[in-house]
Amino acid sequence: MAVLTRYETVIGIEVHAQLRTSSKMFCSCPTGAAAGEPDEPNTRVCPVCLGLPGTLPVINRRAVELVILTGLALECHVETDAVRFERKNYFYPDLPKGYQISQYALPLCSGGRLSVPVPSEGTEVLVDITRAHLEEDTARLQHGGRDHSLVDFNRAGVPLMEIVTEPDLRSPAQARAYGEALRDILRHIGASDGDMETGSMRIEGNVSLRPMGAADLGTKVEVKNLNSFRSLERAMEFEVARHAEALGRGEQLTQETRGWDEGKGRTVSQRSKEEANDYRYFPEPDLPPLRPAAEWVARLRAGMPELPVARRTRYRQSLGLSAYDAAVLTADVELAEYFDAVVAEGVAPKPAANWVTGEFSRLLNARAADGLRASGVALRPAGLAELIAEVESGAVSTTTAKTVLARTFHAGESPRAIIEAEELGGLSDTRAIGEAVSEVLANHPAQVAEYRSGKTQIYGFLVGQVMRHTAGRADGRLVDEELRRQLDGEQ
After folding, report:
1. What is the rounded CA–CA span in Å between residue 124 and residue 169?
2. Which residues 6+ apart lie within 8 Å of 187 measured at CB?
3. Checking CA distances to 106, which of 189, 290, 316, 372 falls within 20 to 30 Å?
């Protein structure tokens, strides 16, 4: 629209990520149900996370480490002098104490940056990170209609990291790219699962418009209830259009919090936006200032896992993978680690990437609803390497290998043992292949005539028929040689 060209989009992002710790932020309650046990509401609770009178919080050391690791990955300054916890006061059913223990004036990490490629725009944007601080999560509300809501306190007190950017993003596509890049980092360093669908990562966009060339920011609107990066992009697009239309009519926008309605594809007003003074921050009297030792920070820096950008660079420059393959692999740290392990077994990088991002990922995605990750697949990297070696040597066809992979994916059996036991190995008998080719040509005289008249695109059809005739076992190279010999022989 014409009016939109008169304004510049300004977006800042707030991310809340649950940290991967075994216990809660200020007590010893587990953050998740034990393996195989149902996660019944209000079973992972104690007097501390329920906010009962007389209880005292104790800081979770591992949660502090994960925020420091994140700060280092984002090139932040890590505060080693004094980090203070504060009480953020507000009253809502999901906050048992009536306040949240958080950080405000003295955050753990501040002043970072993240360079974010934006493929859809063909650009790269440098995003300044304002802060990464530590707090506790709230309980979960389950609304039962207009007359009641239920509260599950299992989530109350789970370690939560908030990462806030400067308003450096200039389009919804950039906002989405930033969210995806940050999630990849959190997963690679093991700080968070980063699953928006399950709520372990929640993202909020703050958007405003200002006249082109203006320095002052426009009226800001925060959008919540975003459970995917696609929703983030769509919500920002909707708000940009809404702001532009309102400004074009001369209307005054209201600073507010809005929710995203995925079904209707629009935002809806929730409440007026709070300012910092509305929360009446003051130092948490039950916790002393936290002073991370410089030696502790140095040890964490030295043990930093490989970050996504470095991994993509290694895949392209050292292993010769395409930018696409590198991006697909590094989008899932467990998939990337599985791929690395397959290559470590001696498989060439390109075939390994083809199988891991192809058939292996297809089978993995089919179990996505069950929460299966690459690390949990029964077929270990050595087994997939064994199967790829059988294909590369010509012992089995790709079609047969896919069938074997589907069988061993969940069972973890040796692919080579199955191939040998069931005689699935490739057919390399030239006499048998010659007979198969002769029979196929005899059964398809019309297609043979087309090929010999110059319509060579029919060749693929004939190859497929030979492979079908041999149940996919024929050596592809020998089929090609024999088929061309017979087609180009007698006329």
Report:
1. 11
2. 193, 194, 332, 333
3. 189
Give residue limits of the domains in the chain.
2-295, 306-421, 430-487
Query: Taking CA 453 as the corner, what is the angle to CA 450 and CA 457, rounded to the nearest 5 degrees?
Result: 55
Would you state the structure tokens that stand for residue 241, as one six-digit string? 């259009």
Burial class, 413, CB count within 10 angstroms (exposed 0-12 / middle 13-18 / buried 19+): middle
Distance from C-alpha of 67 to C-alpha of 85, rounded to nearest angstrom: 14
pLDDT band at 491; cut points 50, 70, 90: very low
3-state helix, strand, coil in the chain (%, to 5): 40, 20, 40
Q: Which residue has the tokens 């389950």?
A: 142
- The first and second tokens of residue 362, run together, are 């297809």
Instruction: For residue 48, give both structure tokens.
Output: 């501390």
* Residue type at 144 in one-letter notation: G
What's this model's pTM, rounded to 2 decimal places?
Answer: 0.82
Q: Of all helices (H) and strands (E), which one includes residue 472?
A: none
Strands 201-211 and 159-165: unpaired
Out of 2-11, 24-33, 106-115, 334-343, pick the least confident: 2-11
Are 73 and 66 contacting, i.e. CB atoms less than 8 angstroms apart? no
At residue 323, the pLDDT reads 92
Please give the Cα distance from 48 to 29 (Å, whole number): 9
